[in-house]
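Sanity check

After download, print the first record. It should look like this:
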Amino acid sequence: MRAVHSMCSFERDACGRGYRRVAGIDEAGRGPLAGPVIAAAVILPPGYEDREINDSKALTARQRERLYEVIQRDAVAIGIGVVEAAVIDAVNILRATLAAMQEAVAGLAPQPDYLLIDGLYGISLAIPQQTIVRGDGQSISVASASIVAKVSRDRIMEMYHRQFPQYNFLCNKGYATLEHREAIVKYGRCKIHRTSFRLAEIDDLFVNAALEL
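Expected structure tokens:
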């Protein structure tokens, strides 16, 4: 079993340097053809441990839902940032993702004094921060944020499914599955599709869609 200390080492290191409110930040929805990109920021209590919290992509939907409730119960604070498809098209997916992360941090109360951010890029806030490539598999705070972001986005896409059932967002969550690609060809795009994701690029996105669902 994955050692707890390996998922808590970044938090312990920050606490050892005097930080007391460490927020993990991650996103869900960078790759889909439809729907928003969502970021979550989570502050856990100092020394918090849970062996089951892991990268959301390594968990089943049922596990994510259960752990989402655990995190909601135990976290000191949770913030969510949502950037819709129209903004993604206007500014590009990287900028939209960083904007969602910034919004998620702004929604935290109390505010954090240190940030652990999944990926390569920091965010434009005057808070000490550390980026961690594949941080959702290395930091319990970032993993918690990945779960909150994923479950939150899935619920939004389930809502959109009721509005646009022809695309079956209930199952594909906006990712480039074969069924979704065929629906776009048949029905065209709806208002939550990302027009900047050109149809010529869909075949490349389709390769990774199954990994992220």
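If your output differs, re-run the checksum step. Summary of this record's structure: Residues 36 and 84 are 4 Å apart (CA to CA).
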